[in-house]
Amino acid sequence: PRNTDSFDYARYHPINEIYSFQDMLVAENPNMVSKLVIGQSYEGRPLNVLKFSTGGTNRPAIWIDTGIHSREWVTQASGIWFAKKIVKDYGSDPALTAILDNMDIFLEIVTNPDGYYFTHTSNRMWRKTRKPNPGSSCIGVDPNRNWDAGFGGPGASSSPCSETYRGPRAHSEPEVKAIVDFVKSHGNIKAFISIHSYSQMLLYPYGYTTTPVKDQAELHQLAQKAISDLTSLYGTRYKYGSIINTIYQASGGTIDWTYNQGVKYSYTFELRDTGLYGFLLPANQIIPTAQETWLALMAIMDHTHKNPY
Amino acid sequence: KDTFEGHQVLRIVPKNDVQLSLIKELEKMIEFELDIWMGVTDAFSPVDIRVPSHTLHSFKSYLENFNINYSTMIENLQEMLDREQEEMDSAARVGQ
Predict the structure, then answer these.
(1) Cis omega (within 30 of 0) for bond into A206
(2) For residue B87, which residues of chain A lie inside 8 Å, CB to CB?
(3) Taking a C-beta distance cutoff of 8 angstroms, is the pair B81, B1 a contact?
């Protein structure tokens, strides 16, 4: 495609096409979109983050990431759609316009690029990073067990051969460390939304402990609103609640860390489906998935904008 | 390139807490080489597990031994992967 209007949002794309998409979007919208490279993956790929901003300095910001588990292809595909949606709706959707007039949005579409590349070339079912583990023939770390939040506790594996291997130490993975450094140095992230698939859930902290977060009531109410908006489009049913109560105990998870850093509106999604296809969601479901998810994202972003802290 | 010929994805719905803990134990049983796609939550919530073809028979026997019901969500994973690849190839051709 020559531009982002002719880009095919209804199919899955290899990583080079996603990189091209990002560059096209920046070139077409120089006053709103820029590309930050926040680090490098283990294999040396850039960790690109799209910044959507209408000006200002270090404005309060919303972070969205997709694809930290590389095989969850509908998430990267949805991330691409969200990027275009933000550009298209600014100036016409009053809620998004108000958000972007006061806040920045950061979007990392391919959070685990080595894993994503590997799913296209060698193993479609790959989930982890691609860093070798000394002393083991098994490769990679689960980047959603590698954060410094209950790291090493139950709900993560100490075995490098496990799909939920936590890594040798917290933030050992460059893909994770880059986000950690970015969030800390930015210092003004107000919402952090990490997107996974599948099983249709919207979750808030904690995963590593049953102790409820101090903002549980507000996070729960906002999750309810977000899911009600999501379901209104196609009737897709979602569960919502804390990670430990809704899925299972998981230590070292992304949003437990962000919440403990002071990012109150920390959420993680599990997008479609409920299990007919698993990670092989047919490409014709990408756009409906992205559309319904966008409604929930808007609910969270709008609430964040209207409830400064 | 890893292929998944004959791998199945089984859906297990635990009926009670006993089955729940038995299924939880599966995650530690490395001999079956399981890939848990959707993990154990609570009774009556489905658990999806990819099982390689060479451990499929013994794994199914294990489940049957404990009276744990399962259904086959994906009959042959490689067939689905091939279909996905074909779809991507044909979409790319149309795009060109």
Answers:
(1) yes
(2) 11, 282-283
(3) no
